[in-house]
Amino acid sequence: MPPKSPPILYKVELMPRPFSLQSNKARRNVMDWNRVEGNWKQMKGKIKEQWGKLTDDDLDQIAGKRDQLEGKIQERYGIARDRARRDIDDWYGNQTWH
Question: Side-chain half-sphere of 32: how many Cα atoms within 13 Å?
Answer without folding.
Answer: 13
